[in-house]
Specification:
287 residues; alpha+beta; Nucleoside Triphosphate Pyrophosphohydrolase; eight-stranded mixed sheet; three-stranded antiparallel sheet; 8 helices; 16 strands; 25% strand; 8-oxo-dGTP pyrophosphatase MutT (NUDIX family); NUDIX_hydrolase_dom; hydrolase activity, acting on acid anhydrides, in phosphorus-containing anhydrides; metal-binding
């Protein structure tokens, strides 16, 4: 038997939707960013290869945050930074460097306006939830440090929406660096959920000089983990991962370095998990 067993309430909702008794909730556009960094050097022996001695890296690490158990969506889950597109994320006033919204739209099969909002939301939400800012004073530079009190004030203003992202960049003389993002995947929340998101996943390297920090808000814990380590913790029941996070970590676990992971040309295919009844039991099928 395959798929993920659904709890009773979701199983009943799935049957109601299939029978036409309930209409699915529309999915909101959202963006998620997998922040990557190279893992630390460890002393040998090497795991494989002809040379057995000396330090080596165990592969990339990813930044994860645990959503508070009081959150309405994905409570207690370990996730990547991200969130819904703010209507102001589509503002043409956002200073931009790198691939254009039109080019991003072609990658994600979205119109130019939607693509602009997705990329802006990716950069904005990453800053809000990790303190990492994929922007710089020029097209070939990136902010080196975002840890001061003035940065924190701007971050909180972005969160409470008293400051628009375009105004934040203009105030600091910065341009969004869309070239620092790599398209990774496209997931849509199953129709059986009461809160649904149409989410494009991006990947990005932690910029030199910047560091993530526990910024609070929707998360109560943050951690850097090797993908294989996070997967093992999930299999042991020590942490909870939603299917898109688990799937992404499983993909990343195959790479020996951040460079290798980002060098792969990915074809973006939309993944929409669906509820299927198998031998009287409702199960969620991811593929």
């Amino acid at each position: 038997m395959t798929g993920i067993p659904l709890p009773k309430d979701l199983a009943e909702r799935a049957r109601d939707i299939a029978a036409g008794r309930i209409e699915p909730v529309p999915a909101r556009d959202a963006a998620t960013v997998v922040i990557l960094r190279e893992g630390p050097f460890r002393e040998g022996p090497f795991r494989e290869g002809p040379f057995r001695e000396g330090p080596f890296r165990e592969g990339p690490e990813v930044y994860l945050l645990r959503r508070k158990t009081t959150m309405a969506f994905a409570a207690g889950a370990y996730v990547f930074p991200g969130g819904s597109v703010d209507p102001r994320d589509t503002d043409h006033a956002v200073a931009w460097a790198g691939p254009s919204p039109r080019e991003w739209g072609e990658v994600f099969n979205a119109d130019e306006r939607t693509a602009r909002g997705l990329v802006c939301a990716a950069v904005r939400e990453t800053f809000e939830e990790s303190g990492v800012l994929l922007a710089g004073p020029g097209t070939d530079s990136v902010v080196a440090d975002t840890t001061g009190a003035d940065w924190e004030a701007d971050r909180l203003a972005l969160i409470d929406r008293s400051l628009a992202f375009a105004d934040f960049l203009a105030k600091r003389g910065l341009v969004l660096r869309s070239d620092l993002l790599k398209p990774w995947s496209h997931w849509i929340t199953p129709v059986i959920e009461e809160r649904r998101f149409d989410t494009r996943f991006f990947a990005a390297v932690l910029p030199p000089g910047q560091r993530t920090r526990d910024v609070g808000g929707e998360a109560d814990q943050v951690a850097w983990k090797r993908p294989s380590e996070a997967l093992e913790l999930a299999r042991d029941g020590e942490i909870f991962l939603m299917p898109p996070t688990y799937h992404t970590l499983n993909e990343l676990a195959a790479f020996a370095s951040v460079t290798d992971a980002l060098a792969v040309q990915r074809k973006i295919i939309t993944i929409l998990p669906r509820a299927v009844e198998i031998e009287g039991e409702m199960r969620l099928m991811v593929s």
